[in-house]
């Protein structure tokens, strides 16, 4: 597995490309904006086929290029049932796209807490982590977690938008992320990567 980060959009969202180096297939996580740049990244990474698009949560800065990359790849879209309605709801608090008229098709597959997903020859476990949104998820792979806006380097996701809950996000982090081994790398929706161990020791919100 090789992971590439592409920072997109006006608030610098992290879109990730996950490549199976043996097969050349891959997955896109959170295509937040600039679909053309994302697809150029896919080509530069040598990903021959994108089999899936994983959405950690439904805020506009994480989905604004979803229509473009789905059309370009034909990949299946995975997202939680709880956040899926956000694909049809656009307002100033949720949309960071320059095109506010975008409306996306429903997901092809709904994430469920504890489910196992195998795409592009790689297997992931889904952990429901509400708090930033009602249906936020973390996608746990081999030694890595794509955690959306649940946890950041020495911080946590904001909880003041619709569906947010400070108590819920802390519970999600403590029960679904801090239970993982210290060396697991956390790939957040904004900012630099971190590790479970670092956040366990240094995150002031979790002390």
How would you characterize the overall build of this protein?
The structure is a single chain. The protein has helices at 35-44, 60-63, 66-73, 166-177, 196-202; strands spanning 2-8, 13-19, 25-29, 49-54, 76-80, 109-111, 116-119, 122-128, 137-141, 144-148, 151-152, 155-156, 185-188, 194-195. The chain has five helices and 14 strands. Helix 1 (35-44) packs across helix 3 (66-73). The strands form three sheets. It has a six-stranded mixed β-sheet, with helices on one face. A six-stranded mixed β-sheet has the order 7-8-9-10-13-14. The protein is globular.
Question: Could you provide a short overview of the structure?
Answer:
With 207 residues, the protein is of the alpha/beta class. Helix content is 20%, strand content 31%. It is built from 5 helices and 14 strands.
Throw out a few tags for this protein:
31% strand, six-stranded mixed sheet, 207 residues, alpha/beta, single chain, 5 helices
Binned, the helix content reads 10-25%
Major sheet: size, sense and barrel closure? 6 strands, mixed
Q: Strands across the major sheet, in which order?
A: 1-2-3-4-5-6
- Sheet-strand content, in percent, reads 25-35%
Number of strands: 14
The H-and-E topology, N to C, reads as EEEHEHHEEEEEEEEHEEH
Tally of alpha and pi helices:
5
Structural class: alpha/beta
Which of globular, elongated, flat, extended, rod-shaped describes the shape?
A: globular
Average pLDDT reading: 93
Radius of gyration: 16 Å
Oligomer: single chain
Intertermini distance: 32 Å
Uncertain regions spanning at least 5 consecutive residues? none
């Amino acid at each position: 597995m090789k992971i590439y980060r592409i920072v997109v959009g006006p608030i610098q969202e992290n879109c990730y490309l996950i490549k199976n180096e043996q097969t050349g297939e891959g997955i896109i996580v959170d295509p937040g904006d600039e679909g053309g740049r994302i697809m150029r990244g896919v080509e530069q990474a040598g990903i021959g086929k994108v089999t899936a698009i994983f959405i950690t949560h439904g805020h506009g800065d994480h989905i604004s290029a979803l229509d473009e990359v789905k059309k370009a790849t034909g990949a299946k879209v995975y997202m939680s049932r709880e956040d899926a309605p956000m694909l049809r709801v656009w307002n100033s608090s949720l949309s960071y796209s320059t095109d506010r008229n975008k409306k996306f098709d429903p997901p092809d597959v709904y994430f469920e807490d504890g489910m196992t997903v195998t795409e592009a020859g790689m297997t992931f476990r889904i952990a429901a982590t509400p708090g930033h949104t009602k249906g936020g998820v973390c996608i746990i792979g081999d030694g890595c977690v794509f955690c959306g806006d649940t946890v950041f380097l020495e911080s946590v996701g904001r909880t003041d938008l619709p569906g947010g809950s400070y108590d819920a996000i802390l519970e999600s982090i403590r029960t679904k992320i801090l239970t993982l081994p210290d060396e697991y790398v956390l790939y957040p929706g904004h900012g630099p990567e971190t590790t479970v161990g670092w956040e366990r020791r240094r995150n002031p919100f979790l002390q």
